[in-house]
Amino acid sequence: MTPGKSSANVPSPRSDEVSDGLVVDSIASQLRQILARRIATGMLKPGERLDRAAIAREFGVSSAPVRDALQRLEVDQIIETRPRSGTYVATPTIADIHEVCQYRKGIEWVATGLAARVMPRSLLDELRTEVVEALAAADQGDFEPFFASDARLHGEIVAASGNQRLIRARAAVEPYVYWLRILGATGRHRVAGSTRRHLEILDAMITGDIEAAKRAAEVHLDEVEAWTVEDMRASMSAGDPDVVPSPSVDG
Q: Where is the HTH gntR-type domain (predicted)?
C-alpha cells in the first residue's frame, strides 16, 4: 500500500525549505520522523509495503532523502528490506520485545538514579499531576493522555540524567518503544499498573529515596515487558497478522 496524504496532525517538511534546497540530511531526518510516527500510530501497518516513489511524490522531494530516511528506519529496525521485493514495515516479534525492554531497562535504571539527585520538585509535582490525570482519562476510555504522560515521564527522567550518551541511546530506540507502547499493554488494568509504578518512582524521587526510585523503575520496566509479551501472545493466539512469534524465544 502507498502512504496516504499527510493529515493535519502529522508534521511534514515545509515546502519553502524543500524548494530552497534544504540539505538532504535535514529532509531525510524530517521524513524519518514522519514515517516513524505513522508506523508507531498504525497509519502504516506491520507488513505494509513502503513505496519510495509515492513517498517522494507526497512530500515533493527527490529520491535521495527518501532513501536515506528509509535506511535510518531500517537501522531502527522498524522497517525491513526484502531482496527482490521491496521495503516493508517490520512485524514485531517476541524477541524484539525482550531486546528492546532489556536495552531500555539498562538505560533508564541508571538514568533514574542520576535524575533523582537533580530533578526539581516543581517538575516532579507536575509530572505526578499528569500521571493521575492520565489515569482518570483512561477510566473514560481515552488512552492518549496516558501515552503522552508515559512518554514525557520517561523522557524527562532520561534528560535530567545529564548523561548525553544515555540520552542518545534512549533516543535511538524511541521509535520502537513508542510502537510497542501502542501495539501492546494498553488495557485498563495495564494502565493502572503502569500508573502505580510511575507514582512509586515519582514519590521516591520527591522524598529523595534514590534506591527506591531505581527499584521502582526496574520493577516497572520488567512488568511492561511481561505485559507486552502477554498481549502479543494473546494477539497471536487470536490470529492477529500484525505480530509473529520468535522461534528463538517461543520455539
A: 25-92
